[in-house]
Amino acid sequence: MSKQILVLPGDGIGPEIMAEAVKVLQLANEKYQLGFVLGYDELGGAAVDKYGVPLADETLERARAADAILLGAVGGPKWDAIDPAIRPERGLLKIRSQLGLFGNLRPALLYPQLAEASTLRPEVVAGLDILIVRELTGGIYFGAPRESRLLANGERMAYDTLPYSESEIRRIAKVGFDMARVRGKKLCSVDKANVLASSQLWRAVVEEVAKDYPDVVLSHMYVDNAAMQLVRAPKQFDVIVTDNMFGDILSDEASMLTGSIGMLPSASLDADNKGMYEPCHGSAPDIAGKGIANPLATILSVSMMLRYSFGQVEAANAIEQAVSKVLDQGLRTGDIWSEGCRKVGTAEMGDAVVAALATL
Ligand SMILES: NC(=O)c1ccc[n+]([C@@H]2O[C@H](COP(=O)([O-])OP(=O)(O)OC[C@H]3O[C@@H](n4cnc5c(N)ncnc54)[C@H](O)[C@@H]3O)[C@@H](O)[C@H]2O)c1
Ligand SMILES: CC(C)[C@H](C(=O)O)[C@@H](O)C(=O)O
Ligand SMILES: [Mg+2]
Q1: Which of 78, 126, 164, 244 has its CA 20 to 30 A from that of 175?
Q2: Cβ–Cβ under 8 Å, residues 48 and 78
Q3: Per the domain annotation, does 14 fall within a domain?
Q4: Is residue 158 domain-resident?
């Protein structure tokens, strides 16, 4: 039976990197007879332009009906000044929330060929393989009330709310423990329990869930220390589980350990492993339209899709091997370039991965 993949290229570099990821997906589709049928729609600024909203109802329905979703990136200066209610990013938050994609996996893995591309010393990052499990549909991103208003004295004020229920914490903690169990059996829960009530509950619930995972070593760390430890000694971590906003920030930080944010893929999963797959980076307006963006995070997101939504381990591994082969050949986009390597553009990088995959 065929499987439906909904492709949402998005804005800025989104369509450029997506074109390369789709080439790789199509080849994997043929080579491994995956039976995928691709459909396309808009999300973010492109959807504002087409439908007047960043996520149209019909797009949401197509996403619900699809077996998996592949997303580029959304947002950009063109839509920064519009009504905040229809900002491109709102479409992304809505699709995550409406589809119940609460479990966000962000692996930071250093390809050995890129040790020189990291801004950290090679010995600090060599062999790095950590996974950030980010809660994606709760916390301060979605908390109510939130408001922006004028005080009686004429001063402007605004606030957000950071709520977490026990069940929201329990289900993401389980994802963290399950991931740690099949990896290095170490889970670090990152919070701000020395200050925030929501973090105090977070820590208590994570402790409760830990009782079902006696084989996993649990530790807790405050987020400010975690940010520091990630650049001091990142290899101390195996799996990190954390809330929505901390996970957003720490995953961008972790990306630089791997050489570039252009290397970090992600999977956003619901309770049944139905998922949306996207690079961790944004629409990179500063380089959009130049054909120089790194497509590897999106290509590696395709690999995550094959692994997590479809159990196609052989095809998923092959895409990762193809990426590794291309790096072995010395091909680099500008963001991961170092002395002695050959600088290539987005399409040349994508074509090289396709060629490498074809020979595997
Ligand atoms: N998931 C998403 O769709 C997503 C994620 C983050 C930011 N955004 C949006 O993207 C827009 C720009 O945000 P930003 O500038 O803070 O973050 P960004 O991730 O788009 O860019 C940050 C920096 O990283 C570089 N970069 C990002 N991806 C790259 C790639 N594949 N190859 C090479 N270089 C790359 C950019 O050129 C820029 O210098 C905003 O509208 C923001 O809301 C969207
Ligand atoms: C664009 C924005 C809403 C999004 C987030 O904060 O979740 C992005 O930064 C990400 O990391 O996917
Ligand atoms: Mg982010």
Answers
A1: 126
A2: no
A3: yes
A4: yes
How far is residue 251's CA from residue 107's CA, in Å, rounded to a whole number?
A: 9
Low-confidence residues of the chain, pLDDT below 70? none
Q: How far is the CA of 284 from the centre of ligand 1 (A)?
A: 4
Q: Are residues 241 and 327 in the same domain?
A: no
Residue entry with tokens 């020189």: 116
182 with 220, same domain? yes
Strands 36-40 and 3-10: parallel
Domains held by the chain: number: 2
- β-strands 265-269, 275-279 pairing: antiparallel
The answer to whether the CB of 243 is under 6 A from ligand 2 is no
Q: Is 248 designated active site?
A: yes
224 is catalytic: yes
| Sign of the CA dihedral with 200 first, then 203, 208, and 209 last | positive
State which residues form the domain around 138: 118-258
H/E element, 328: helix 313-328
Q: pTM, whole model, 2 decimals?
A: 0.97
Task: Please tell me if the CB atom of residue 89 comes closer than 6 angstroms to any atom of ligand 2.
Answer: yes
Question: Is residue 113 included in any domain, yes or no?
Answer: no
Which residues have CB less than 5 Å away from ligand 3 (the ion)? 248
* Same-domain check for residues 248 and 282: no
Give residue-wise pLDDT tens across range 259-316: 999 999 999 999 998 999 999 999 999 999 999 999 999 999 999 999 999 999 999 9
**pLDDT computed for residue 116 by the predictor:** 86
* pLDDT for residue 118: 87
Cα four-point dihedral sign 306, 290, 54, 41:
negative
CA dist list (Å): 249 to 62, 195, 318: 30, 18, 30
Q: Return the amino acid letter for 19.
A: A
| Assigned token pair, 140 | 């301060």
Question: What are the CA-CA distances from residue 165 to residues 6, 101, 208 (Å)?
Answer: 31, 16, 14
Active site includes 252? yes
User: 82: Cβ–Cβ under 8 A, 6 or more apart, which residues?
Assistant: 48
* Binding site per annotation, positions for Mg(2+): 224, 248, 252
Q: Which residue has the tokens 């906003």?
A: 245
